[in-house]
Amino acid sequence: MDDTFHNLQMESKNHIENLVKWFQDSKLVEKSEEGERHARALFNNPTEEEMVEFEQFKEAVAKLAEEQKTSFDEISKILAEEGPKLVEAINAGLMAFKGSTESKNEIVCECYDSIDDKPSNLDEDIA
After folding, report:
1. pTM for this predicted structure
2. With contact defined as beta carbons under 8 Å apart, do 14 and 8 qualify?
């Protein structure tokens, strides 16, 4: 669990959306709007852009363990099993997004081999 969180943190992917997904994929909270609200509450409802720190993450895991009447270690084990899949899914999504934007850039570049080939009204369309 620790390694997965630190990997997310190094890639600046430790925001609430990914952590909620991790809890849901691990079947620790329901995959529903109610489950998402519950998971966010465990983290004290951070904003979408706010990065969750490791201590805050551990506090959320401890709260969840207490609610489910199980140990911190048991929740950690469940998260550790699901963690690598989460990181893989996040990276796959990022690569797909990069691929789609790169192919669009290639199309534009292929259309205009030089600046002289650009239509005169192109700058107006962009502005």
Report:
1. 0.69
2. yes
Assign 70 to helix, strand or coil: coil
How many other C-beta atoms are found inside a 10 Å radius of the C-beta of residue 29?
A: 22
No. of helices (H) and no. of strands (E), the chain: 6, 0
55, burial (CB in 10 Å: exposed 0-12, middle 13-18, buried 19+): exposed
Name the region of 48 (left: φ>0; alpha: ψ -120 to 50; beta: rest).
alpha
Burial level of 5, CB count in 10 A (0-12/13-18/19+)? Answer: buried
- 48 φ, ψ (degrees, to nearest 5): -60, -40
Q: Could you tell me which of 88, 18, 24, 4 has the C-alpha nearest to residue 48?
A: 18
| Cα gap 106→111, rounded to integer Å | 9
**What are the tens digits of pLDDT across the range 98-113?**
665 555 555 444 444 5
